[in-house]
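Subject: mismatched residue count in predicted assembly?

I count 948 residues in my input, but I want to confirm that the predicted structure covers every chain. Input:
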Amino acid sequence: MNLQLDEQGRLKHLLTTEGLPRSLLERLLDRAEPYARAAEAGFKKDPLLVGKTVVNLFFENSTRTRTTFELAATRLSADVVNLQVAASSTAKGETLLDTLKTLEAMQADLFVIRHEASGAAHFFAEHAAPGVAILNAGDGRHAHPTQALLDAFTIRRHKHKFEGLSVAIVGDIVHSRVARSNIHALRSLGCTDLRVVGPPPLIPAGIVELGVSVEHDLMRGLDGVDVIILLRLQKERMVGAFLPSLGEFHRDYGLTRERLARLKPEVLVMHPGPINRGVEIEGEVAYGPQSLIIEQVRNGVAVRMSVMAEILANTQ
Amino acid sequence: MNLQLDEQGRLKHLLTTEGLPRSLLERLLDRAEPYARAAEAGFKKDPLLVGKTVVNLFFENSTRTRTTFELAATRLSADVVNLQVAASSTAKGETLLDTLKTLEAMQADLFVIRHEASGAAHFFAEHAAPGVAILNAGDGRHAHPTQALLDAFTIRRHKHKFEGLSVAIVGDIVHSRVARSNIHALRSLGCTDLRVVGPPPLIPAGIVELGVSVEHDLMRGLDGVDVIILLRLQKERMVGAFLPSLGEFHRDYGLTRERLARLKPEVLVMHPGPINRGVEIEGEVAYGPQSLIIEQVRNGVAVRMSVMAEILANTQ
Amino acid sequence: MNLQLDEQGRLKHLLTTEGLPRSLLERLLDRAEPYARAAEAGFKKDPLLVGKTVVNLFFENSTRTRTTFELAATRLSADVVNLQVAASSTAKGETLLDTLKTLEAMQADLFVIRHEASGAAHFFAEHAAPGVAILNAGDGRHAHPTQALLDAFTIRRHKHKFEGLSVAIVGDIVHSRVARSNIHALRSLGCTDLRVVGPPPLIPAGIVELGVSVEHDLMRGLDGVDVIILLRLQKERMVGAFLPSLGEFHRDYGLTRERLARLKPEVLVMHPGPINRGVEIEGEVAYGPQSLIIEQVRNGVAVRMSVMAEILANTQ
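Triage response: the counts match. Full output below for your records.
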């Protein structure tokens, strides 16, 4: 049974980009387009979801991500409730379920869930009542599907197609839900030259099975690419355990102006944010002319509006 | 002088169910009915309170209760402000008053107040400006009137009348604002066979004066009842002081499948939540076919909408 | 270049009252008038800013101030996001900028900023994208322009003009952004007899250059005044460093009924709140017939609505 799609292939929950058909991904990107354009023209409010209730249920603190979902729901005129829950207070599956069932009973229509445990969003989707939708806003190392969608949306706005595009994802692949969700989405959308680049301890075994190539040398990995997706290095967890030092990582994998100058002139630089200046990226590159980092944030609201509209149009 | 009712008998503040006339209680339940039905049909939004300001002023942390009041006000299209105040920072009556007067000056129309001190809601109602309403969301051991209303609403939806109904309230009666508010409401609504059941240290002296009978043996107390209202055991405060152990409480007073099977087949099980599985109730009973626990949560939003609509229709 | 005004003299950002022309100040007060009157008549909601996004970005905790801005924006039908940020986590200017740029990318239209560092609001205004407005809700000792506007609005409602009015500002002038903003606003509005009163350590050197007179003796400073603006004493920071004791401050500078009785009978008493009873003011004076303290809070919402309406009518 497919947790994400109903019998007619419509989106019920968005948990992961893995297994999502290309037509659905494209529809989600298409649906984001008018939201992005209207906002650029100063029109941000759509009455589509008046009377719907969206609950931001965040077990992991992320003001930035929570705010984009809050704005997306608010601009669709839904009622939004923000709940920040200490993960420790709901450690047991039983209690997680009580929380879900209680909020469901208050007739919430959609839960946006962020949790440090991989699989948390699936757990909620398995137990959700019919007509209640789960939107994964990041679960452990597993998936962050709206980030992948907004990245694909941003790439498409600049490159117009995925066929023939070379994309490199650089950095800490092993711990990254963003990398995993991007690989599934970009592969499904038709991108065939997809590379992951990083030091051996940060590249998971078996990643090639997802249809990507692996490169440990940065400049070889970036050779001829059209798009670079840098990942945020979780600095605290890294040094000692996976990396000798941040300085060494920057020396070997940091994207600098000097390195950027040796690549294709029209190469685009992306990063899910927040950036670590001087670690995975130089500040001048982050705010330079080839960077799409700020545009990614902007597109993030439009893409999340698209996903909410798509899912809630399928409930009643 | 009646703090809750004006000269025409209309509701100004809701502080306690004590002394509320049957006709008013029934009107509040009647008014909740269309909200409950509309929400079940997927219609949750009513423009009734556009432009009104509801302040959730919580001196005691309760995300669950706060969320139901927030949703109730939002679905009535009121503007809602959530204020979580550390009780310690407003320990003195003087400062409580400053807080009230400041928020009143911002033209709040209704304050939903939760406070650990019994009488806090009365204090606010005594000092509120004309046209400013106080809604008690639980004050100390004193009262929790909307919980009593939603319990009555839930019972009425299933049993249709209160005359001839046998209702048992089980557990820690002495510390429970829910028990007290339920007794007043159910008595006023016409329930004559109302029993409280629990170990002697948890039954307050003089409770029989409220028109209830007392039983210390669980199965004798539940004999022939139509509705069981279990109370949440405040575990931390109990053991040692009032009870030998949680296991012993469960052995003597926990509602299990086995015990439930020996009661009237149509008996209904209620609990204000959140439940302590394996203490006052077995998990299988809580989610079993006779449990109304989830329905209580759902009805809680409709009943709170009804109370807000009733009170704010009396102000301008 | 003027950060606050565009080439046509329209308000882009509100950072300080310093340098604002009288005509603009008067327009802001005029625009607040219908909001104040409508709210008094029970009408609080204006659809003016539907679809606009207001972000309350508070680096300093102030529930009271945040609530007035939240209500002002909500009553203008804007979407409001509250972000409480620990100042420590954004200590470096670089990171402050990342926060601003990220939220800008989510198409926020107006940022209400409170920060403990003087100049923080200017920093944001200097770096804000075109069409993004900054509203200073208090930055360090520097400025609190909406407080000054609401004070001027309150004075004008009672005294109808500023010419010929004597106003004394009493207390801790040296640390007070309220004092500074009030002086600039009242001077620009035509008030010529403006006095600051307090003990020598709390009067900044050079204050006379702003066009005020200085008095160290309270009753001499209040002689013949029409309006007294008391300041909140930051008790924790004061004793030892600037003052021998709170009792001594109250003895020398506290406004008591007895002192008030010796002044002009129609003198008005103002305070930005929250008051320290028994320090800068006696409780009986604070809630007495000459006090405008509660009215200041009420006017604060109308004035903030006026400022938001004025600024956002200049963007698109």
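Residues 37 and 43 of chain C are 9 Å apart (CA to CA). Marking this ticket as 'not a bug'.
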